[in-house]
Batch of 4 targets.
Target 1
Amino acid sequence: MKKKKVMALLAIMMFLIIVVQTSAQVKKLTSMGLYTFARVRGEIPTPEVMKMLADRYAGDIKYGFDQAGYGDIYLAFIDQLKMAEFEDTTWNVGETVKWMLFRSQGKIKVTGPVEWAGKKPVDVFAVKVKKGFKTYTFIIPKPCGNIALKDEVEEIPEAICSIQVSPAKANIGDPITVDMSGTKNAKRMIVDILDKQSNKIISKELTPEAAKWQTKLDKGGEYLFKAMAIDYADRPSTNPCEAKVYINYPPAAVVVPDCLNCLEKVGQPLNFDASGSSDQDGEVARIVFELTDSYGQVIDSFVDSERPFVWQKTIYDPGTYTISVTAYDNDGAASTATSDSKKTFKVTRKTFFISAEVGPLLVHSSSYEVFGFLRTGMFLWLKPDKTSLVFTSGAAMPFEGQPWKPVITANLVGNLHFGPLFTGVGVGFMTKEHVDRKAGVDALGQVGFTLSNKYLSLWQLYFEFRAPLGRNFEDCHKMAVGLRYNF
């Protein structure tokens, strides 16, 4: 019983194999016109008539394409048929088609493969339809209008690479745009950026959907953007595809101040020399000077667009300062900060001066006797523009002779300054100015006005009153007007 079942199963399998083999065998067609898709009466139709019939029977054609397993190219066939070129050719004896669409008893049917086994070639129209990278060749026998697929050929075109890079010249850090949207037949593109020594700096992969890319370069020099397109068969493009970009070298800024330890330079012009700034591939177009204090606050700045790029600046307050310069070239590139472009210096103020005083001195007796005095010594700022100390000594000569005598005089005065006004108190010494008087110490006071203060020199005018200590006030008090020069 089991043996019979096995034999029956084998018989069924053999039958199926025979059916498959039979269906796969090429059918031989010996006559044309029996099963026509669209019969045309009269003369052989023109391509225009065939296009009209295809449009009229579009639904039948779609059904046939679906039955043949080629439904995905139906729309391409219908669309391209309207503009297609119909080639007059023949279906030769022994040639086969993959399948043929025909009509039998009013129904659309597909059979294939089919070999023409007639006695002579059949006149046909040949039409090519493209979809994707495939080209389908259809033949339409005349005049039956059957549609047959003769062959299909996959033709993957080579990629054609295209690259546009802008701008061609830029500064460090400027955006560089790479555009490969002009590339054809590529599934991806690769861009390599090479420096002057052919070292690969950056590599980027792009696609036709994202064919633009923006990048930046942080060093000057010439760069080569070398690109390649990969087609759908993974073959690289062979056409030249590259572009060059020059990145402008930034200038180098250098500043040289007059001094780093600027002793007694308050109130004096200082020169900051940036003439040593340079640009290796262009010219320095301008220099921006910036002066900051010890807290980093900008106290002044200056822009110079003409050589020799020197800024003269007077500083009126002692302290520590920093001078910084930035150079810009003719392409707008700016220098970076370096130890050569930034210098810190200290400015001090003159506090010790040689002092000389001259003026009339009135000495009281029964009346006032006039002396002329000349004293020299020193002027010292204890706190500039606030407090000072003056010590001078010299001689005073009477305008009349006996009983008046030449004297030696000396002063030590401390002053408070209120802008140009000042007042001072101190002590003075004077030898005897009269034959019947004695040398002695005076208490003195001064009120004065600073006529000129150029930081390295001062002119002062003052009134002085001297009151004797231990002697008769009426006989020994004195007054003077003095002009003092401190230098």
Target 2
Amino acid sequence: MTSAVPPIDIRNPYVRAIALGRMAGVLGLQIIIVAVGWQLYEITNSAWSLGIIGIVELGPVLLLMVPAGNLADRMARRNMAMAAQGVMFVAAVGLMVAAYTHAPPWVIYAMIALVGVSRGFAAPSVGTILPQLLKPEQFVHANAWVSSGSQSAAAVGPAIGGFLIAATGSTFAAYAVAAACQLVFIALLFTLPRIDPPPSSMKRSISEALAGFTFIRDNPLFLAAITLDLFAVVLGGVVALLPLFAKDVLDVGPTGLGWLRAAPALGSLTMALVQARIPPWQKPGAVMLAAFFGFGLATIGFGLSENFALSMVCLFLTGAFDSVSVVVRTSLEQVITPDPLRGRVSSVNYIFIGMSNEFGAFRSGASAALMGAVPAVVGGGVAVLVVVGAVMAKWPQLAKLGPLHTLFPKAPDLTEK
């Protein structure tokens, strides 16, 4: 059955503003990630220093999860998103100063913590603006376009960062470009309408504050989707180790690092563009499971590769498979979540995703330090395959999930227990 609402595309002003804004923000963030990883590894020559980046960034996100989600449901999300990107701008400027003054590692880690603060407030605000402005039937294609913009930036951002480092011999210029990108994002957010939430008659309580957890607990399909993403990326993530592979395994320097870091994003961009133009998946849950199985196989291939071209292909495939999960999971969240809860649910969801990326960075760094980079990556890929099987056994309904636009929001029970 076809929807009465036509597919939406980049010509829609709301989709365009968010897609371009996210593109600028992700571009700046990816440049920061590449520059920080290279700078710290140059200073310390330690895989531990790369793993610690994830933990330092994750800490503020965990602390801000509940208050940020509640704040997003009580104020104009556009304004909160602008403030969050303002914090990211301050962090980028701080890293510029650290690069110029050759500051010690703890100063760099302090700025990474500030990046975590920014992302903690951005997660429940930026991602919940479009659902206020579009129809549910438009979510899948809108998310595919937004993901395309983000992945375009994620593809070129690392390459730009690596080029700037190689060309200037310093990370200063890379951080300056990253700071400018955040200002562009803020300007584009300002073009969106300000939507204040309706006054709430509900008494503030612990149940209300933790409604995001309650909602996810009571929706097994969504719980299955984010659990799959959490454990697969924690166990199979290799991004944090790319400086090590670029320098010690593949011997390709900072420019090669930029391309390695860009390869997953190129894969994600390609798949996001495909999903933006094809009909929504009829069996999105089954497709998501298959994609993560492919993600695990590609991770194993990267760990075993000693050839730059083959490594690029494997990383490209990890990004392509991950893009399927991003679009399915994001659209599922937006379709089933009532708007008054979207900030809190999005915040909890980001903890799963943020934890998977950032804790995965620590896991891979620690594993590489203890057993070597290749065993750490290959073992992680094998573990991903095990996780896919476990999720299929625990939540068989995920594989049977039908078209997402046929689902409806369901409010949780917020009564005190």
Target 3
Amino acid sequence: MSIPAFGLGTFRLKDQVVIDVVRNALALGYRAIDTAQIYGNEAEIGQAIADSGVPRSELFITTKIWVDHFAADKLIPSLRDSLAKLRTDHVDLTLIHWPSPKGAVAVSEFMTALAEAKALGLTRQIGVSNFTIDLMRQAIEVVGADQVATNQIELHPYLQNRRVVEFAQAQGIPITSYMTLAYGKVIDDPVIARIAERHQATTAQVVLAWAMQLGHAVIPSSTRRENLASNLKAVDLRLSPADMAELAALERGERLTSPASIAPVWD
């Protein structure tokens, strides 16, 4: 993958909480950090990184452009603002966070601006998030599939998003799974618990390992240092074909994130 398989998500983490989480994660060995303009925590993440002493060259930082900044004259200035908050002259990956509500800004407009941001050196890679097959096709028409580093989508055992995954993989576009633990719903799942017991692992480790074994990147988060440390161990967990089949069978189309004001018509 052109992006790290395992990173730290920071959705819903604010103020001193996100500073502490990022500090702990970096101390534990995390090197990929995922944020977004709408999260309202870029400045705090920038502070935590600066305080950590970890060289910028060791880090992979992702941010996402919010829908208010999609217009050609707004996208790059908004990204420069994000860079200032993050205390860096570039991010490693910049995503379009959600499709433009009601198509107010054309895919061609914001993808062209995003490609320009890359050409300017403000971001090393570009990609999309919450894109359907049709929207991915439109993005590919503008910049080419080889320029789309990932499509970051909700993906967990209860929503495996197979149609979108199959299309993306056919185009050579990796998937990043967010909400991989389904807001914690997987933790007490009896099927996953049995798999975890076989491996002397936690249910969270099993699900994170499952997603990575499918070829996806994951960006779990936690406010607890012990959970951050535990989640990281999923990188070394290997599941059997039987384990993977049991997890595949948990699909039930349970989408947990679909804000009415910005969500597309899902595949």
Target 4
Amino acid sequence: MPIIQELFGKSPIGHLMEHALKVHECVEQVRPLLNALIAEDYELIHTLQDKVSRIEYEADLLKHDIRDHLPRRFFLPVKREELDGFLQCQEKMADYAEDFSVILMIRKTHLHPALHADFLAFLEQVFQVSGTLLTAAVEFRNLAEVSFSGAEARMVLDLIKNLGQEEWKADRLARELSIKMYKLEDEIGPISIMFYEKLLLKLSAIANEAENAGDFLRAMIDQ
């Protein structure tokens, strides 16, 4: 291999976006899982959990492939630690989606009807955060062709800025949902409350990691 090719290697940005798309595919499975919980279709939950586990594994394979094929020396279009930080945040998003599926699988939990709409609204806000990150990540790939500058860079930075606002909305909905859950504690019982909280925390964590991933994207653009 010529020394120049060895030094600069192949840009990992395209593969980084493949991984981001796979992670988003994993996160998207949360919607049918929640709908199955509302319908109390526990057999479907088991089927969907297997699907989430498979997609999360595929995302892991992509992550390892990216790390294995990073140039061994230092000439990357972005800083190695920032690229790795973005990968780690994405990995956690997929992990939390899988955790959500496992929580649903291990107990046939009845979701109180008074909470159905609130859980669905909260989930949609989590998807808003995740979707905004995905859009920014896909557009980030195009920035590599313009040296991470110009109008394209400003557009991605605006998307990343919006991530914070969208994640704040998710946090607010999570607090409101938690308050409503505990008002129903006498009807629901402490064990179900515990499971509801676990579900809430996993969904919140997806949104939090999406915002963190956006911070690494911003750092790669601003370097």
